[in-house]
Amino acid sequence: MSGAVIEIIQPKGKNAEGEEEAPVVVARAVYEHPFVVRLCHWLNAVALFVMVGSGLQIFRAFPSFGAKIPQKDLLHWPKAFAIGGWLGGALQWHLTFMWIYIATGVFYLGYQLFSGNYRQVLFTHRDIPGVWPMVKHYFFFGPKPPVREAYNPLQKHAYTTAIGLGVLSVVTGLVVWKPVQFSWLGWMMGGFHYARIWHFAVMWAILFFVLGHLVMVILHGWNNFVSMLTGWKKDPEY
Amino acid sequence: MKNNDRKINDRKMDEKKFRQIGRRELLKLTPVLALGAFAIPSLQEGLLKKGLGFSDWASARLFRSGHLATTFDNSELTPFAKFPLNTYDVNDPGVIFENWTLTVSGAVKKPGNYTLAQVQALPRFRQNTRHICVEGWDVIGRFGGARLSDFLQLVGADPTARFITVNCADDYYESLDMATALHPQTLLCYEMYEQPLTRQHGAPLRLQIPTKIGYKQAKYLTDLKVSHVLDRVGYWEDQGYSWFYGL
To answer: Which of B11, B22, B31 lies at the smallest CB-CB distance from A230?
Structure first.
């Protein structure tokens, strides 16, 4: 469970009189990311990379949302930024990694729910008052709001949205993969055509999140990055 | 943060121990590296084949015999002229209709050559269903023909057999699981839009399976085999596509 705080100390030797000196606290560290969260984060990151790459290769086979005759191509995605080499290859990657993508997502959600750790990341109505001050700060016209927990309201909003998008990517993908068996889901999305459009749109929304996420990770520095590897964040702001 | 709050900061750890813990936690993530196996050329093909096989297994579990594919109004049909033609080598393998028969073999009581008239003597079903290509496009067509399940009954197919394999005049070949073959919407199709099947669309007889992806709908059928083991899978499957590919 996250939230444990420790002090990192440097033990001191004996002073001139031969008395032991008290150790000095050199830093604080907080355990932010439980093992399951870190494991799922990285497995899911790899799976997402493959899903997007192979998905774009699949899209190359029919880069359109209209009729086959006449076909109006929407986008000529370069093959160099796609995975699988051809449609059949890309489908193999897509239909293999979707299980890793789904499994890590389900395992993550289950863990967060049952451990209660979701409170760290779930955006709720209590976070709403903190949104505007944080926006002002991010856009350089407000003071930095005090940091009291792992994620500020905007971070919670971003992560909650990203997880929701992840769920949507799976649900829309299920309809594209099995439009007959999941016909009721397809009906909710406006039919097979729309499911394919939603699946594509959700991918871009996820990529938009990933871009923002990477920028923020770089801006937040090394200790923050390491926390997603070891779980411990050194010198937290709170 | 030296004026610490004792209530929260109840643990102290020296620097060395902290680094040790960090390393240990990092090592616990090594399972992620296992995904690197997919980047090793000699392992990649086998792993992806396993993944695709797992998806096929799951697809078969998701298939429900009683669940029908959505059918559509005539007003929603794709105009016949806009119905795409996908073939793997020729548009018309030049079947001589007068001589055409469907050769039935394998686990059946009455093997032999069946004429189109014998297929057409079975109850005819017409359905407006969605045809989805693996490429991603789809059309809604009006198809007519006999239920494959009725034909299997006619030829006395072994009810415990597991697969149907077909060969085509253009050397295309395909296979089906028995559950899909017995599905009420799986047709031996001889008409489209209430007209006899055109040569380009697979005359005189093709498969029409609204619960399967496009490449399973083999055209210009010449042979049909009922079997317990699958000796030949399918043309596109042999290129690396999914076998079950149920929709």
So the answer is: B22
Q: Give the pLDDT score at B8.
A: 44
User: pLDDT below 50 — which residues of chain A?
Assistant: none
Q: What is the pLDDT of residue A62?
A: 94
Residue B7 scores a pLDDT above 60: no
User: Distances from the Cα of A83 to the Cαs of A79, A89, A90, A160, A233, in angstroms?
Assistant: 8, 8, 6, 28, 35
Poorest-pLDDT segment among A14-23, A162-171, B68-77, B205-214? A14-23
Q: Print the domain residue range for B132.
A: 69-239
**ipTM for the whole predicted complex goes beyond 0.95:** no
What is the H or E stretch that residue A236 is in?
none
Q: What is the pLDDT of residue B9?
A: 46
Supply angle C-alpha B114, B120, B167, rounded to 5.
45
State mean pLDDT over B216-238: 95
Q: What is the 3-state secondary structure (H, E, C) of B24-42?
A: HHHHCCHHHHHHHHHHCHH
* A96 part of contact set with chain B, CB < 8 Å: yes
Total tally of structural domains belonging to chain B: 1
User: The pTM is what?
Assistant: 0.92
Helix-strand-coil split of chain B, %, nearest 5: 30, 25, 40
Phi/psi for B14 (5° steps) reads -80, 160
At B138, which CATH number? 3.90.420.10
* Residue A85, helix vs strand vs coil: coil
For residue B41 the two structure tokens come to: 């050329």
Q: To the nearest whole angstrom, how far is the Cα of B9 from the nearest Cα of chain A?
A: 6
Interchain pair B22, A6: CB under 8 A: no
Q: Is B84 an 8 Å CB contact of chain A?
A: yes
From chain B, the residues in CB contact with A35 under 8 A are 25, 28
For residue B98, pLDDT over 50 is answered with yes
Contacts B12 to A, Cβ<8 Å: 6-9, 23, 25
Distance from CA of B110 to the nearest CA of A (A): 34
- Taking each helix axis as running N to C, give the angle between helix A222-230 and helix B15-27, from 0 to 180 degrees, rounded to the nearest 10: 60
Instruction: Calculate how close chain B gets to A17, using CA atoms only, in Å.
Output: 24
Tokens found for residue A67: 């009729």
> Which of A230, A232, A234, A235 to mutate against chain B (most B CBs within 10 Å)?
A230
Task: Write down the domain spans for chain A.
Answer: 35-220
d(CA B78, CA A69): 10
- The overall average pLDDT reported for chain B is 92
Query: Does the domain made of A35-220 have the CATH classification 2.170.150.70?
Result: no
